[in-house]
């Protein structure tokens, strides 16, 4: 059969997409204009023609698992006009025109293909045959099948085509398809199967969804995404930041992961960074790896640095949005990170997630420096920064989903709320630390973001308890059912400030204690964050020092877990007494952790740790004592945030951060603020309950408190209990 | 801002008209044509190439910048001939025998021009000996080959073999590229360089000729 009539209209959007021209580009208008001018000429140059014939498949049966011996061969072409035009435009130096001509040709061929598929199905129906699948050369069958197709369809005579010795059709804008027939004439698998295709960088690749199980040393997660995203992008989207110095271009080799199950084809880059054996074992650069199917991957130790932004650790399944449902957006604005979730209100099911670094970080890493920036003329800039990233998050979450949002709930510390709302921080940072407001804030999308192409939904900000115990803690209390529980529980959020709450449904007390950044490697001489090369584990044995670093890289410094380790080990080896005094010569020169890298842990570092751990311990003890209970009365101690996951509870108890008697009660609970925001979205009485939580929460001020001061002095030492 | 800098700026924005006008103006002001070329046009193109590699700009931005460069070159070229400007190097380029795809090759030509090379583009379906003959004829530094199919890749090796047979292998830098080609294939057939994209190709080519 020969067809020469095609009703094809070139898709301008797709042509632009093929040459990477994005609507947000400044050039987009110019490109569209050029394309408009080219199209009439293109239609004249394009001479579409297709030929289809049934033929035998007997020389190729060994290449397929099916037993079929027949195929339908098809060749279509648009002639030589477009490629000649493209070449001549390039020679003139009109490179944009040349690329556009080529992309127009490709789009036309692509659309012809869809038209032809209908005819293929019709022809097979008439012949009472089905189609097992469409074969791709050279993956499924050798390239010489194009020669077979060329002969069977008589393309030379019918269309004036030629074929090269390499089996390439001439003119170049021609396509050959082979459909493997099937005796089952009810199914017609005519489509190109993107999930089996290895052309991962194809701009027309269709997405299909996959589930990726992610194993880390501590936990296992399930995340959902598409075959069109690299594993690196997928992990990043779910708040698992993998180091990639080259930002995902396959150049630095740092984002390695191991595929344990499932199909993830090795990339060219993998061949450069891994040996054959490693590739067979499943090692891949995540930034170049596309999940072909559902798979299980393992993250190496070096990635455990920046995890747990999300509340999603509990394998909450991400599901597709259903039309007509009611949706909400939960938001956690942290000082360093922002996490957002699109949730179905009725079921609490997570539809999509968005995480990002808080862009206010250019104005300082902690709340104090942000307040200072706000007070020195950067108030508007800080507001715009955070609103900008939230706007971006909303757009990303709602992209292509055709859902409308009922409301958005935000949990954040008091400073973040002030900066988001554009409130003055003048009285927040100085005694008596007076916030502009701590009440629940109700606003709307329109008021906060202007028109962003969505419906105008309500925005609610969690109420805070005090200047230092903010809405993020209220959200945590609500997430952990403090409004319902009979037994007494404790919530701790340890960062530069340690925020704590104790209580049950009847009574709640909260406090905040200044820890300093020692546990984050902050004010430690050789301290650093939890990134590659950081000493994360230390063992002392007589004069021997054994250290392990993140990613097994040459040591560059020491991170929080390493700090706890070294203090714990020095105590155990008795080279430091219980007052925290290191023996000579360590007292003078510090203890050498790495000779070649010059990393030492000094007496003054021990002091910094003593101050930090004493602040936490004393805060905790004061809170417990003011509440009027003993350790035995406490059922559970929840440690929120990433710190809880990374910490070795036994060693933390060993240096006195927590009392021995509580060791069994400590639980890492992840991002309780985001969990609280989700819960608020899904519960009808949330507004009332959260206000009630705030109302009944009593703040315990630690400054000038005698119990705190005494306990602080006592906790400074490393006395055995 | 000097006129040379302005040329570079407008080129980066892809404003062909302004670039053409400014190059003419620079010539009228008796500026050295070599300076206009190197510090204006080629410098601007190099910035665009680097930005492309860093994902700061995309293909269309590179295309319009190159178009602007071409417009400037058209005005400048007669003067460059007059003062006897030597190009960075000479490159013979083409898609190998049996292969008709030329988009990738055309983009490499564009970037090589932008790096200051004199280009001899043999088009598509180029026989191994044709690459060698042309290189000998023009005194080239580099032979660049492109292939889009696994069935045409072996022709790259044929060209390297032809060079060896004629005792010319060490005289030329051989570069290969195209979808199925990779580093290990390049090594296997005895080519000097494989590059994954056009911008890298230009960068590597420039480095290779200066080190030669």
Kindly describe this structure:
The complex is a heterodimer of chains A (721) and B (212). Chain A starts with a strand and ends in a 6-residue tail after the last helix. The longest helix of chain A has 32 residues, at 95-126. In chain A, the strands form seven sheets. A six-stranded mixed β-sheet of chain A has the order 15-14-13-16-18-17, sandwiched between helices. In chain A, strands 28-27-19-20-21-29 form a six-stranded mixed β-sheet, with helices on both faces. Chain A has four domains: 2-182, NADH Oxidase; 209-303, Ubiquitin-like (UB roll), CATH 3.10.20.30; 317-479, Domain of unknown function (DUF4445) (Nucleotidyltransferase, domain 5); 526-601, no CATH class. Chain A is an alpha+beta fold. Chain B starts with a helix and ends with a helix. By secondary structure, chain B is α/β, with parallel strands linked by helices. Chain B has a five-stranded parallel β-sheet, sandwiched between helices. Chain B is globular and about 50 Å long. Chain B contains nine helices and five strands. Chain B has helices at 3-12, 16-28, 33-53, 59-83, 103-114, 128-138, 154-165, 183-189, 198-211, and strands at 89-95, 117-121, 142-146, 173-177, 193-194. At the A-B interface, helix 3, helix 4 and helix 8 of A face helix 4 and helix 5 of B.
Report helical residue fraction of chain A: 25-40%
User: Low-confidence segments of chain A, ≥5 residues, pLDDT <50?
Assistant: 302-317
Shape of chain A: elongated
Structural Rg of chain A:
32 Å
Largest sheet of chain A: 6 strands, mixed
Tally of distinct domains of chain A? 4
Number of helices of chain B: 9
Helix content of chain B: 55-70%
| Count of DSSP H/I helices of chain A | 21
The CATH C-level class name of the largest domain in chain A? Alpha Beta
> How can the largest sheet of chain B be summarized?
5 strands, parallel
What does the radius of gyration of chain B come to?
18 Å
User: Termini separation of chain A (Å)?
Assistant: 91 Å
Number of strands of chain A: 29
Order of adjacent strands in the largest pleated sheet of chain B: 2-1-3-4-5
Biggest interface? A-B, 35 and 37 residues
Total number of domains of chain B: 2
* CATH topology-level name of the largest domain in chain B: Rossmann fold
Q: Mean pLDDT of chain B, as a whole number? A: 93
- What is the oligomeric state here? heterodimer
Task: Count the beta strands of chain B.
Answer: 5
């Amino acid at each position: 059969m020969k067809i020469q009539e095609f009703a094809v209209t070139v898709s301008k959007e797709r042509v632009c997409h093929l040459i990477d021209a994005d609507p947000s580009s400044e050039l987009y208008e110019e490109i569209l204009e050029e394309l408009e001018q080219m199209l009439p000429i293109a239609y004249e140059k394009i001479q579409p023609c297709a030929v289809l014939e049934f033929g035998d498949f007997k020389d190729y049966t060994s290449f397929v698992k099916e037993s079929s011996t027949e195929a339908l061969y098809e060749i279509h072409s648009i002639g030589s006009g477009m490629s000649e035009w493209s070449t001549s435009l390039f020679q003139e130096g009109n490179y944009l025109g040349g690329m556009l001509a080529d992309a127009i040709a490709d789009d036309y061929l692509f659309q012809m293909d869809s038209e032809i598929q209908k005819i293929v199905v019709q022809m097979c129906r008439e012949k009472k045959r089905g189609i097992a699948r469409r074969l791709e050369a050279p993956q499924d069958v050798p390239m010489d099948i194009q020669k077979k197709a060329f002969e069977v369809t008589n393309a030379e005579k019918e269309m004036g085509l030629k074929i090269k010795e390499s089996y390439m059709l001439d003119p170049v804008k021609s396509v050959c398809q082979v459909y493997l027939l099937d005796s089952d004439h009810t199914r017609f698998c005519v489509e190109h199967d993107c999930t089996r295709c290895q052309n991962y960088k194809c701009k027309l690749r269709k997405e299909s969804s996959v589930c990726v199980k992610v194993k880390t040393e501590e936990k296992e997660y399930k995340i959902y995404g598409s075959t069109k995203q690299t594993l690196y992008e997928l992990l990043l989207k779910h708040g698992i930041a993998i180091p990639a110095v080259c930002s995902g271009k396959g150049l630095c080799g740092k984002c390695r992961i191991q595929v344990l199950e499932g199909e993830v084809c090795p990339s060219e880059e993998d061949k450069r960074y891994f040996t054959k054996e490693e590739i067979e074992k499943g090692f891949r650069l995540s930034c170049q790896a596309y999940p072909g199917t559902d798979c299980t991957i393992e993250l190496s130790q070096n990635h455990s640095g920046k995890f747990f932004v999300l509340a999603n650790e509990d394998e909450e399944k991400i599901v597709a949005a259903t039309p007509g449902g009611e949706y909400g957006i939960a938001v956690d604005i942290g000082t360093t990170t922002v996490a957002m979730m699109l949730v179905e209100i009725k079921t609490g099911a997570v539809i999509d997630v968005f995480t990002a670094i808080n862009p206010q970080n250019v104005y300082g890493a902690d709340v104090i420096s942000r307040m200072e920036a706000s007070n020195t003329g950067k108030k508007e800039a800080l507001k715009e920064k955070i609103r900008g990233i939230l706007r971006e998050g909303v757009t990303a979450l709602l992209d292509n989903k055709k859902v409308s949002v009922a409301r958005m709930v935000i949990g954040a510390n008091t400073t973040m709320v002030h900066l988001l709302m554009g409130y003055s921080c003048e009285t927040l940072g100085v005694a008596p630390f007076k916030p502009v407001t701590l009440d629940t804030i109700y606003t709307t999308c329109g008021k906060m973001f202007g028109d962003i192409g969505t419906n105008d939904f309500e925005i609610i900000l969690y109420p805070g308890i005090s200047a230092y115990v903010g809405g993020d803690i209220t959200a945590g209390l609500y997430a952990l059912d403090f409004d319902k529980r009979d037994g007494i529980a404790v919530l701790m959020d340890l960062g530069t400030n340690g925020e704590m709450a104790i209580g049950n449904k009847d009574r709640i007390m909260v406090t905040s204690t200044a820890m300093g950044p020692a546990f984050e490697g902050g004010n430690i001489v050789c301290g650093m964050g939890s990134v590659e090369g950081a000493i994360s584990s230390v063992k002392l044995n007589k004069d021997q020092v054994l250290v392990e670093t993140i990613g097994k890289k040459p040591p560059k410094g020491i991170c929080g877990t390493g700090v706890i380790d070294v203090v714990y080990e020095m105590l155990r080896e008795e080279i430091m007494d219980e007052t925290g005094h290191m023996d000579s010569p360590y007292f003078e020169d510090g203890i050498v952790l790495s000779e070649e890298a010059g990393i030492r842990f000094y007496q003054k570092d021990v002091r910094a740790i003593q101050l930090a751990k004493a602040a936490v311990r004393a805060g905790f003890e004061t809170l417990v004592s003011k509440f009027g209970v003993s350790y035995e009365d406490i059922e559970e101690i929840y440690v929120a945030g990433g710190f809880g996951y990374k910490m070795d509870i036994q060693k933390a108890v060993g240096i006195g951060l927590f009392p021995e008697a509580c060791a069994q009660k400590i639980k890492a609970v992840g991002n309780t603020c985001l969990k609280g925001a989700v819960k608020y979205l899904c519960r009808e009485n949330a507004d009332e309950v959260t206000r009630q939580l705030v109302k009944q929460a009593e703040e315990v001020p630690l400054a000038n408190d005698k119990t705190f001061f005494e306990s602080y002095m006592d906790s400074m030492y490393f006395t055995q209990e | 801002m000097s006129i040379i800098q302005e040329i570079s700026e407008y080129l980066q924005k892809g404003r062909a008209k302004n670039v053409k006008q400014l190059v003419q103006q620079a010539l009228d002001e008796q500026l050295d044509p070599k300076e206009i070329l190197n510090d204006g046009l080629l410098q601007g193109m190099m910035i665009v190439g680097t930005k492309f590699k860093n994902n700061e700009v995309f293909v269309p931005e590179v295309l319009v910048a190159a178009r602007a460069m071409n417009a400037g070159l058209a005005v400048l070229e007669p003067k460059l001939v007059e003062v006897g400007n030597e190009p960075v190097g000479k490159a013979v380029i083409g898609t190998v025998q049996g292969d008709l795809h030329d988009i990738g090759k055309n983009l490499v030509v564009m970037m090589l021009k932008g790096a200051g090379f004199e280009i001899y583009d043999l088009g598509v379906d180029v026989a191994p000996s044709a690459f060698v003959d042309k290189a000998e004829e023009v005194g080239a530094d580099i032979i660049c080959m492109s292939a889009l199919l696994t069935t045409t890749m072996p022709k790259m090796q044929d060209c390297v073999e032809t060079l060896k047979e004629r005792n010319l292998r060490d005289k030329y830098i051989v570069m290969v590229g195209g979808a199925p080609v990779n580093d290990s294939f390049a090594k296997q057939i005895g080519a000097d360089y494989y590059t994954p994209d056009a911008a890298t190709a230009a960068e590597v080519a420039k480095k290779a000729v200066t080190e030669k």
